[in-house]
Amino acid sequence: MKLVKVKNYEELSAFAAEKILEKVRSSNRVSLGLATGGTPVRTYELLIDDFKKRKTSYQHVHTYNLDEYVGIAADAQTSYQYYMFEHLFNHIDIPKENVHLPNGTAENILQETQRYEDAIDKLKGVDLQLLGIGENGHIGFNEPGTPFDRTTHVTELEESTREANSRYFNSLDEVPTHAITMGIATILKSKEIVLLASGEKKAEALYQMFNGEISNNCPASVLRNHPNVIVVADEQAASKL
Ligand code: GLP
């Protein structure tokens, strides 16, 4: 696992955007694993800026998001699908049919998790996976305790995760209790992973990720077993390293 320390959120976002652009330009068929949350917002803005200025095309890019809430309609403002269209897809030339997220309102949710896993498995993992990290060390929505061999599945969110994400909802009560998430085994199939951590709230999770045991108490620690991971941390997130 390689650590890249940068000064601040802007530099972190520029690094991530450049990595994504390199990948997008590298081949005529590219799969990207994408993340939501506050951290990648500026990265996506920089991709949009690049699209406006340099017209880097995404016609050949297929995206697979890490997770989606269960029970939130795809077109609701709080869905991760809505987030992705607002923050990125509406502003670049990616074909809609190339965009993949789990369907959190599927009638048969188990079948949906299998369908999603099969699609990623067919690629033998995405080419580049972008990750954030939860304050408790979660990746995607793989909370502490999730076995490392889980593939895409339905997970119950920790109270602390619901609270951290409640800023996107009118109240904590509205935050879903469950989500569909790529499993750790799904994430580990990725050919390359870039994890972004910004702010002092992430410092302890990063400390555990690098220095704690590789254990499901800190899901992100498993990334030490992957051959091609870059962790990009700003000064505050890296303050305990
Ligand atoms: C959510 C998402 C994760 C994300 C994490 C951190 O739980 N499911 O994919 O990495 O939040 O979010 P933020 O970047 O807002 O700190």
From TrEMBL:
InterPro entries: Glc/Gal-6P_isomerase (IPR006148), Glucosamine6P_isomerase (IPR004547), NagB/RpiA_transferase-like (IPR037171). Pfam families: Glucosamine_iso. The keyword Nucleus does not apply. Pathway: Amino-sugar metabolism; N-acetylneuraminate degradation; D-fructose 6-phosphate from N-acetylneuraminate: step 5/5. It catalyses: alpha-D-glucosamine 6-phosphate + H2O = beta-D-fructose 6-phosphate + NH4(+). Its EC number is 3.5.99.6. NCBIfam families: nagB (TIGR00502). This is Glucosamine-6-phosphate deaminase. It comes from Jeotgalibacillus soli. The lineage of its organism: Bacteria, Bacillati, Bacillota, Bacilli, Bacillales. The gene is nagB.
